[in-house]
Design brief:
- By secondary structure, the chain is an alpha+beta fold.
- It is 35% helix and 22% strand.
- The chain contains ten helices and ten strands.
- The longest helix is centred in the first third of the chain and has 12 residues.
- The protein is globular and about 50 Å long.
């Protein structure tokens, strides 16, 4: 059993209501991944290959707890009881945020690549090896998977809108990568960490990239 299979199967056991029909095996093969890589500037990192070959995950909203520096700057936290955001009572408390995760679907390599590009800001982003894989905190922050480093990065939507890159570097892969190297901040050091967060909900220290003691580790 792979790492991704363990995380996803443990998530299914904890929240069976999310998987009424059960987890669906990915139909992809290593050859499908090789076909995808022919259209990408970088090879798919091994951890992401593991994910693509494990199970299909549809677009899903999860709620995760953050406890790093970013959480101190967010003035609202999501209340599961009130089904919405409420004002944080302290800048030092953990913050719950909604994460809209794109997941992974596709019946073949081309289909999976199309799904990866679903939220693509412009072709320049995938040409730079960056895929938007989600967004969080009411969509204010965008999540990108960097094929070059294997990291999951985050960036505030306003930083992109105000940078001028949408007007001047819409399809310029070099401009996109230069922008993200300047403005993108590490959210997870690798895809396994990101998947663990999606499957467990944290708490997660997004500054030091660690899970406090007691967080499930399938």
């Amino acid at each position: 059993m792979t790492v991704c299979e363990r995380y996803l199967e443990d998530w299914q056991r904890r929240e069976p209501e999310r998987f009424a029909g059960g987890l669906k095996r990915s139909p992809l093969t290593p050859e499908d991944l090789r076909q995808m890589e022919k259209e990408l500037p970088y090879p798919l990192p091994e951890q992401y290959q593991d994910f693509l070959l494990s199970y299909q995950v549809p677009e899903v909203t999860v709620y995760v707890t953050l406890c790093g520096d970013l959480s101190c700057s967010l003035w609202q936290t999501f209340s599961l009881e009130k089904h919405g955001y409420v004002r944080s009572t302290s800048y030092e408390e953990d913050v719950v945020v909604d994460v809209q995760w794109l997941g992974a679907l596709g019946n073949c390599g081309a289909d999976s690549l199309c799904h990866l590009r679903k939220w693509e800001i412009s072709p320049g982003w995938s040409q730079a090896g960056l895929f938007q894989i989600g967004q969080f905190y009411m969509g204010d922050y965008l999540l990108f998977y960097d094929l070059c480093s294997g990291q999951v990065l985050f960036c505030h939507e306003e930083d992109i809108n105000e940078s001028g890159i949408l007007a001047e570097g819409w399809d310029d892969a070099q401009a996109v990568r230069a922008f993200m190297e300047e403005e993108g901040r590490p959210f997870c050091p690798d895809f396994y960490t990101f998947l663990r967060l999606m499957c467990t909900g944290g708490p997660y220290d997004e500054t030091d990239h660690v899970f406090p003691e007691g967080v499930p580790n399938p």
